[in-house]
Amino acid sequence: MDAQPLSSDGFDDLSLREDWAIVESMLPQGWQDKARELKAMRRSRALANPATLLRVMLIHLAQGCGLRETAVQARLAGLACMSDVAVLKRLRACGDWFGWMSQGVRQRFPASACAWPLRDGKPRRMRVVDGSTVSEPGPTGSKWRLHYAIGLPDLRCDEVIVSTTRVGETLKVFDVQPGDILMADRCYANPAGVAHVIDCSGDVIVRTNLVTLPLYDLTNQRQCVLSLLRQLGAGASGSWPVRVKFGKRFLSGRLVAVKKSEASAELGRKRVARESQRSGCAIQPQTLEAAGYVFIFTTLGDEVSTQTVLELYRGRWQIELNFKRLKSLVGLGHLKKHDAVAAKAWLQGKLLVAFLTDALLLHAELVSPWGHDK
User: Fold this and answer.
1) Sign of CA dihedral 169, 310, 178, 356
2) How far apart are CA 336 and CA 351, in angstroms?
3) Could you tell me which residues come within 8 angstroms of residue 361 by beta carbon, excluding any fewer than 6 positions away?
4) Rounded Cα distance, 268 and 299, in Å
5) What is the pLDDT averaged over residues 99-106?
6) How far apart are CA 329 and CA 111, in angstroms?
7) DSSP class of residue 187?
8) Are the beta carbons of 131 and 110 closer than 8 angstroms?
9) How many angstroms separate the CA atoms of 185 and 300, rounded?
10) Strand runs labelled E in 121-217
C-alpha cells in the first residue's frame, strides 16, 4: 500500500492538526514572536517558522529520539531537512525560549490556594519545595540542580529554577508572596532561608536537626533541643516556643516534635549510621538519639495546632513523588548532553514537556464526549 503524501505543514490528517492546535493553545500568547526575540529562530533556511522548530524539538525532547533520529524523523514528516549537528545547534539556542514558555504555561494554570489556614480571612498558598540534581554522564560531567516548588493540594508546579550545583538548596532562591507557607526537608533548615521567608511575610514548616538550624529559648540562650524531646513518650507530640538567630535578629517560632515508634527509630538510626559511614565521620551519641524523633521548626502561630503542623508536613512527600514522575515519564533523570549550554536547554525543554503534559491532562478533564470543551 502506497504511503499517503504529507501536506505542506507536515500533517497527513485532520486529527493531527486538531491535536497540534490544542498543544498550541496551551502555550503563552506571543510564543512565536518570542522565539525570534530570544534568538531561538535566527535563521529560517531549514525551518519554516517557530511552530516547525518546536515540533522538531519535541521529537527530541518528548519522544526521546537521539539527535540523528530526530533529524531523520523531521525529514520523514516533511518538517525540515536537517543534520544531527543542526538539531543540536537549534537546541542550544532554544534554552531561554523553552524557559519563557514553561513559565507561561505554569501561569496559565496556576496552583490554587488552600482554603485553610487563613490570614486576614484570605486563603494562603501551601507550597512544598525541594531540589533535585541532574548529572551529565561520565566522571567529568557537570551537574545541574532543579529548585522546584509545588502547591498543595493540587500538586501543580508553581516555580522552578535551573542552576548549577554551586547554588545550594535554600529557601532564598524562591519567590515568596505574602501569606505563602513553605514546607521543606532538613537541607533547607538554615537561618538565612527562614529569614528570607519571614521578610517576605510568609511562614515556614521545615524539618530540622541539631546542627544546621540552632535554636534559642525566649531569653535568647542556646536551647538544648534534646532536653525538650526527652519529655515525649512514644507516639506523643509536643510544641515549645523557640527562636532562630539570623545576624543580630531573633526570629520567633515553634519547635514541634513527635517521638517515633521503636521500629521507626531503629530505621532512623541505621540511616544515620550509613550516612556517617559514607562521609567518614564518627557518629555522635546525640545524633543517634535525635534519630528517634521527628522535629520541625515552624513560624505558624498557636492557632495552628501541633497535630495539624505534623499532618501538614506529611504532605512534603508529594514532591518526592513528583520528582520520580519527572524522571520516569519525562526522562528527566540523566543528562544526555556534555555541552553546558545544550544541557541547560535540554533541561528547560524537558520541563516544558512536563508542564505541557500537565496542561493537556487538565484540558482532557474538561472535554465532553463530543470532543469539545464543556
Assistant:
1) positive
2) 15
3) none
4) 26
5) 92
6) 21
7) G
8) no
9) 16
10) 122-124, 126-135, 143-152, 157-164, 181-184, 203-207, 215-216
Sheet holding 203-207, edge to edge: 157-164, 143-152, 126-135, 181-184, 203-207, 293-298, 249-259, 237-246, 215-216
- Residue 165 backbone class (left: φ over 0; alpha: ψ -120 to 50; beta: rest): alpha
Three cell numbers, residue 101: 514558555
pLDDT at 20 over 90: no
Helix H or strand E encompassing 305 = none
Residue 363: the pLDDT is 72
Task: Give strand pairing partners of 203.
Answer: 181
Dihedral (CA of 57, 59, 63, 64) sign: negative
CA dist., res. 349 & res. 346, Å (int)? 5
Distance of alpha carbon 93 from alpha carbon 42, whole angstroms: 9
Q: How far is CA 77 from CA 71, 74, 349, in A?
A: 10, 5, 21
**According to the model, what pLDDT value does residue 368 have?**
53
Whole-number Å distance between alpha carbons of 159 and 156: 9
Q: Which pLDDT score is estimated for 139?
A: 60
Adjacent-strand bridge partners of 157 = 150
Name the burial class of residue 204, with classes exposed (0-12), middle (13-18) and buried (19+) by CB atoms within 10 angstroms of its CB: buried
Strands 237-246 and 215-216: antiparallel
Alpha-helix runs per DSSP H in 238-316: 262-279, 285-290, 306-314
pTM over 0.90: no
Please report the pLDDT score of residue 2 as a whole number.
40
Tell me: pLDDT of 138 over 80: no
Per-residue pLDDT at 63 = 85
pLDDT tens, residue by residue, 150-172: 988 888 888 999 888 889 899 99
Instruction: Report the amino acid identity of residue 99.
Output: G
Q: What's the rounded Cα separation, in Å, for the pair 176 and 253?
A: 18
Q: What pLDDT shows up at residue 5?
A: 42
Q: How confident is the model at residue 296 (pLDDT cuts 50, 70, 90)?
A: very high
Q: Provide CB contacts within 8 A for 91, sequence distance 6+.
A: 57, 60, 342, 345, 346, 349
